[in-house]
Amino acid sequence: MGLLQKILIPVLGLVLAFCFYSSRENFKPEMLRGKRVIVTGASTGIGEQMAYHLARMGAHVLVTARTEAKLQQVVERCRALGAGSARLVSGSMEDVATTRQLVEVAETELGGLDMLILNHVGKSYFNYFDGDVGHVQKLLNINFLSYVAMTVSALPMLKRSGGSIVVVSSMAGKVGFPFTVPYSATKFALDGFFSSLRQEFSIQSVNVSITLCILGFIDTENAMRAAADVLLTSPAPKEECALEIIKGGTLRQREVYYRYASTKLPLLLTHPGWSPSPDLGKAVTN
Ligand SMILES: NC(=O)C1=CN([C@@H]2O[C@H](COP(=O)(O)OP(=O)(O)OC[C@H]3O[C@@H](n4cnc5c(N)ncnc54)[C@H](OP(=O)(O)O)[C@@H]3O)[C@@H](O)[C@H]2O)C=CC1
Ligand SMILES: CC(C)CCC[C@@H](C)[C@H]1CC[C@H]2[C@@H]3C(=O)C=C4C[C@@H](O)CC[C@]4(C)[C@H]3CC[C@]12C
Known about the structure:
globular; Rossmann fold; seven-stranded parallel beta sheet; binds (3beta,8alpha,9beta)-3-hydroxycholest-5-en-7-one; EC 1.1.1.146; binds NADPH dihydro-nicotinamide-adenine-dinucleotide phosphate; 7 strands; single chain
């Protein structure tokens, strides 16, 4: 029994770990060549960087957000970087017409879809919960319900291609964290919906993967503006973050944790006497 516990069990563990990790496919940028990918929230931040990585890999990219002028610049840069093709659809994710148009463009102009990257996020505040139920509802529409609507509309195409759904979430969607109450609620909802849907896909043998991405603090302009003065932890680079999301989606991983180690500790706020300014929330909410 002693010998079994001391030697055999650890050796068996090592053998199993080796089999598990060596059977996992390695990522190669060529895996994305010619693939048809929608990236939402691609006018800025991590979404914009994902579009550029995909372009370098030779994918057909279809980007979306509200600001058409910014999207136009992203499309031009994607073409210059070598995208198979680059297109845009501008509009708010609060509007079902945007969802419909995206799916239609993918169907008619790309002939289908291989990967749906759901990344957009509505503006919120980094402050104590202010009791504004209307804001929670608006944020749920943008950050959660539109993800559900996009998934439902794109599913027939993804089933045909055996494609992938990539959902960008946050550590604040796995663990409660102060000053992000409405945002955090929308991210927890994503986990509930997509982790359950993944189980159903498995039972029904639906060959569409779902990758949930759990991100820590990333150095995008909007995040830095809202939280850089407040958090002790240093942000991770958006370019590397974007690449890790694409890798995880391509390899059909269930979850991607990006910069998990660095966000675990320290997570305390700066300045012992600091408390959120009453204006901070208003400044970043629209
Ligand atoms: N940065 C961070 O520290 C972290 C980010 N994340 C997650 O990563 C993802 C990307 O974050 P990040 O790059 O920082 O975000 P940004 O604020 O830089 O980008 C948000 C994107 O969403 C678009 N968007 C906003 N509102 C709407 C709307 N109503 N309809 C359609 N599009 C909209 C914006 O474009 P436009 O205004 O033109 O519509 C923009 O393209 C998000 O899901 C976020 O929750 C997770 C953890 C940490
Ligand atoms: C629970 C702990 C183990 C880890 C805590 C990590 C904390 C520090 C990390 C994890 C997720 C991060 C937030 C996030 O997801 C998105 C945004 C939106 C942006 O516009 C403003 C910044 C904000 C609020 C981030 C702030 C920092 C958060 C709370």
